Amino acid sequence: MIQHAAVDRSDQLTDAEGPIPTFPRRTVDPALGAVPELSDEERSARASAVARAMEAIADITDETDHDDELWKEAMRDIDACRGPRKLFEGMY
What we know:
Elements: E1 14-15, E2 18-19, H1 40-58, H2 68-81
Antiparallel strand pairs: 1-2
C-alpha cells in the first residue's frame, strides 16, 4: 500500500470567488468493496472546484509573479503525494 505524505494546504489555490475548495481522497469502503457513489451535490461541488482550479491555473504564465523557488516547491509537493513514483525528482 502506498503511503501518501500529508500536504500543507494553507497556501491553497484561490480565484475571484476566494479559496477553491479541496476534497478528501476517496477510498474503498471495506463493506462494499468499492468506492461509494458521490451524491449529486458532492459531484457538482467537485466539478465546480475543478473548473475553477483549471481556470486559475490557466492564468499562470511565465510572466506571473511566481519565482523559480515557488515552482520548485510545487514540484516537491506533487512528488510528496506520489509516494515512490516521483514525477519531478531531480528537477528541484
